[in-house]
From TrEMBL:
Coiled coil stretches, renumbered: none
MF terms in GO: 4 iron, 4 sulfur cluster binding; aconitate hydratase activity; metal ion binding
Any GO CC annotation of this UniProt entry: cytosol
Keyword vocabulary terms for this entry: Iron, Iron-sulfur, Metal-binding
Membership in a protein family: Belongs to the aconitase/IPM isomerase family.
InterPro entries in UniProt: Acnase/IPM_dHydase_lsu_aba_1/3, Acoase/IPM_deHydtase_lsu_aba, Aconitase/3IPM_dehydase_swvl, Aconitase/IPM_isomerase, Aconitase_4Fe-4S_BS, Aconitase_4Fe-4S_dom, Aconitase_put, AconitaseA/IPMdHydase_ssu_swvl
Subunit structure of this chain's protein: Monomer.
Originating species: Caldicoprobacter faecalis
Keyword Membrane found: no
PANTHER family: ACONITATE HYDRATASE B, ACONITATE HYDRATASE, MITOCHONDRIAL
Protein name: Aconitase
Length: 643
């Protein structure tokens, strides 16, 4: 029987397990990436493993999230990452070189290889035919140490693209259409594999936009074939020798199939406060807009910004709109500068930011109170912009540029002739902001400023797990709710005690104090708990506050892995109606926890306050059960390596 692309790559990297959906498998990892927000923790954890040098084919440390230097903290973190990268054999992408996923696509991504990144949008590299998965920092640290990556074999969903996009309709609209149909939970437990004649009509950066926002579907990753379009992109990047063809066999089997007719799509918009709250721009209508932000790892490629420049050329941004643009990489920025497009953007009144995540991570450009912000980003969760009362809409660069000119949400088809942009035959290649590691054995001192604090490590699971319910939450709680990430907090990402004062305060401002007073306890939540970023801090900070378990209707994949890695029990209601009978301050006890976990996949939780027993699921592989019993992955790894 023929194989699909996912099966081909997994088979060639399989370390253990069978490729049957739902079964745990382990694959070898060719490349890793970290960004600074999660990287400090990943490297602290890597150091704790005592391995002298990374064992991947290539590992890259990017600085792109927290590039503002309003105090010593960020600069200290950058210095730590730069020196730790040099010591352990890791490439270092300097601040200013660009957003990790954009740069990785340009300079490092390789079809047929595996990539593990401590960022939830790592799947962006699926646009170049890589099996690229986002994970917590500790999983990435284990991969850097040469360990395989364990995960549940997902189902493979074939997304068949037919037809061709109409003028003014873009790759962003394809993924917004999928979000509209499938919702933010629709890709959970799946890999989206793209196929069909429509694929050949999309450039690699356009494919990357789609793969990028597969993360918002909750998918494990997304992948495109590697074809002549991929080859041309790699040739233009001076890397044709790294290209291989990759496509599904004609008789390949898929677990699910979905079809999109590209020619029928029109400009779409995700409305506040969820990426799946999608409607057509036409239906939403001309709402007044205060800010337009163009950039992020979703839409900051050369093609994206050239189209924006052509739309803005010779015109002026509406007086009520603040337009900010962040080029995705130094390569993109340089090319726009050389060909004059940058001058067109500046002349129109755009504010050009540095090549970094910027406003996407709440790092500057927070909108005004109650403002409407139209962004080309991938997330519009409540509070992520830095202004809780702001309303964020997600669109394509074309819609964003048209909106910047008119001051109201605008269907760009009203602008007239479409400014087509050709893919360049060569990109400007200058890797002088990517510092390769010195040869092995070169002495390097790792510099640790005062902002680098030790991270919490759990203890072995006790036999009686007991505590009160510290907080009961609804569905779709994001990692931004659990551990907000904004300009004020990001500088403290390597300082867990400081961050603890802000844990879950977007849900309940008294939570940290209550958790401290109670000495920890349980959290209760609805469906899709922990959706959003790969932020390990959303598990490490609750661990620091003494959280022993989270009982939810369901979990987002990466967050669940982060909870397990921290030794926090991720428990699911066997009967969802039990959610209604559990309240804040109820005292819960799990007796004989160790035996219960070893024996089966269902545990009994006694609710002492309500005098009731409920069943919760802990359906983990034998290995993950060992991780939980050891009190997390670091303890487990140390135990098994005799350290
Ligand atoms: Fe950065 Fe936003 Fe992407 S924070 S990595 S641009 S999702």
């Amino acid at each position: 029987m023929g194989k699909n692309i996912v099966q081909k790559i997994i088979e060639s990297h399989l370390v253990s397990g069978r490729m049957i959906p739902g079964e745990e498998i382990a694959i070898s990892i060719d490349q890793t990436l970290t960004q600074d927000s999660t990287g400090t923790m990943a490297y602290l954890q890597f150091e704790a493993m005592g391995v002298p040098r990374v064992r991947t084919k290539k590992s890259v440390a990017y600085i792109d999230h927290n590039t503002l230097q309003t105090g010593f903290e960020n600069a200290d973190d950058h210095k730590y990452i730069q020196t730790v990268a040099a010591k352990y054999g890791i490439y270092f992408s300097r601040p200013g070189n660009g957003i990790c996923h954009q740069v990785h696509l340009e300079r490092f991504g390789r079809p047929g290889w595996t990539l593990l990144g401590s960022d939830s949008h790592t799947p962006t590299a699926g646009g170049i035919g890589m099996l690229a998965i986002g994970a917590g920092g500790l999983d990435v640290a284990v991969a850097m140490a040469g360990g395989p990556y364990y995960f549940t074999m997902p189902k493979v969903c074939r997304v068949w693209l037919k037809g061709k996009l109409q003028p003014w309709v873009s790759a962003k609209d394809i993924i917004l259409e999928l979000l509209r149909r499938l919702t933010v939970k629709g890709g959970v437990g799946k890999i989206m594999e793209y196929a069909g004649e429509g694929v050949a009509t999309l450039t690699v950066p356009e494919r990357a936009t789609i793969a990028n926002m597969g993360a918002e579907l909750g998918a494990t990753t997304s992948i495109f074939p590697s074809d002549e379009v991929t080859r041309a992109f790699m040739r233009a990047q001076g890397r044709e020798h790294e290209w291989i063809p990759l496509e599904a066999d004609p008789d390949a089997q898929y677990d699910e199939e979905i079809e999109i007719d590209l020619s029928k799509l029109e400009p779409l918009v995700a409305q506040p406060h969820s990426p799946d709250n999608v409607d057509t721009v036409r239906n939403v209508g001309p709402i007044k807009v205060d800010q337009v932000a163009i950039g992020s790892c979703t839409n900051s490629s050369y093609l994206d910004l050239m189209r924006v420049a052509k739309i803005l050329k010779g015109k002026t941004v509406h007086p009520d709109v603040s337009l900010v643009i962040s080029p995705g990489s130094k390569q993109v920025y340089t090319m726009l500068a050389r060909n004059g497009a940058l001058a067109d953007l500046i002349a129109a009144g755009a504010r050009i930011l540095e090549c970094a995540c910027g406003p996407c991570i709440g790092m500057g450009q927070a909108p005004a109170t109650n403002a409407v912000s139209v962004r080309t980003f991938n997330r519009n969760f409540y509070g992520r912009s830095g202004t809780p009362s702001a309303k964020v809409y997600l669109t394509s660069p074309e819609v964003a540029a048209a909106t910047a000119l008119t001051g109201v949400l605008t269907d760009p088809r009203t602008l007239g002739e479409y400014p087509d942009v050709e893919m360049p035959e060569t990109f400007e290649i200058n890797d002088n902001c990517i510092i390769p590691p010195p040869p092995e054995g070169t002495p390097v001192e790792v510099v640790r400023g005062p902002n680098i604090k030790p991270f919490p490590v759990n203890k072995e699971l006790p036999d009686t797990v007991e505590g009160i319910v510290l907080l009961k939450m609804e569905d779709n709680i994001t990692t931004d709710h659990i551990m907000p990430s904004n300009a004020k907090l990001l500088p403290y990402r390597s300082n867990i005690p400081y961050l603890a004062d802000y844990c879950l305060t977007l849900v309940d401002k008294d939570f940290p104090e209550r958790a401290r007073k109670a000495g920890g306890g349980f959290l209760v939540a609805g469906h899709n708990y922990g959706q959003g970023s790969s932020r390990e801090h959303a598990a490490l900070v609750p661990l620091y506050l003494g959280i022993k378990g989270v009982i939810a209707k369901s979990f987002a994949r990466i967050h669940m892995a982060n909870l397990i890695n921290s030794g926090i029990l991720p428990l699911t209601f066997v009967d969802e109606r039990d959610y209604d009978d559990i309240d804040q301050d109820d005292r819960l006890v799990i007796e004989n926890a160790i035996e219960q976990i070893k024996q089966g996949n269902v545990l009994i939780v006694k609710n002492i306050t309500k005098n009731k027993e409920i069943k919760v699921g802990l359906n983990l592989s034998p290995r993950l059960k060992e991780v939980i019993l050891a009190g997390g992955l670091l303890n487990y790894t140390r135990k098994n390596s005799g350290k």
